[in-house]
Write a structure and sequence with these properties.
With 208 residues, the protein is of the alpha+beta class. It folds into two domains: 72 residues, no CATH class; 123 residues, Heat Shock Protein 90 (2-Layer Sandwich). A four-stranded mixed beta sheet has the order 4-3-7-8, with helices on one face. The protein has a two-stranded antiparallel ribbon with strand order 1-2. It has a two-stranded antiparallel sheet with strand order 5-6. The chain is globular and about 60 Å long.
Amino acid sequence: MTTIALPYDRQLLPGATLDDLDHDLVARTISAAVDLSRAPGPREPLAYLERYGGAAYDGDVLRPTVAGMLAYGREPDRWVPGSGIDIAAFATEQVMPTRSRVRQIRGPIFQVIDDAVALLREHCTVSRIEGARLVNELDTPGIVLRELSTNAVVHRDLREYGSQVRILVYPTVIEWSSPGGLPSNITIETLLTAQFSRNPTLAQFLFH
């Protein structure tokens, strides 16, 4: 009999309980998924979590999994060290920590990605004069900022405790650094279209 190993994000978190999850956030995710026809399964939060791998039974106790905590946890970084994103902005092209501004973004993964993209949009906004008006516009498409930030989170190796997803913002370039690097079958060229994920359960919640 062949035993199929569960991905790391389906592992249980000993000591965590369902009270550590934001059930309202789960309900909002279900509502949005139903509207988009992306989640044909249960609509009750606990049943949804169990169906899609956000919670599983530890004996007779239903507990959050790693993915469930990252997606819906009230304090994900308390249970999964290294969750979240650190963003450092530099005034020059040189890495000079004393001259950088660092922002630590923590919380449920949906919020983390939204906050990271909002901050990146601020750094990527350029101004130009158009007639008598000052026009602000992005020099990097917002969808690219979101896709790369999302991929950095979904493809990271969660087993590297304490290592953060980092985004380094320089005047002319942005660098995304994800613990574990890219999976072996993904390249820079295929990053935006790749289907593989180290954390398929977490990726599924983001899709919903």
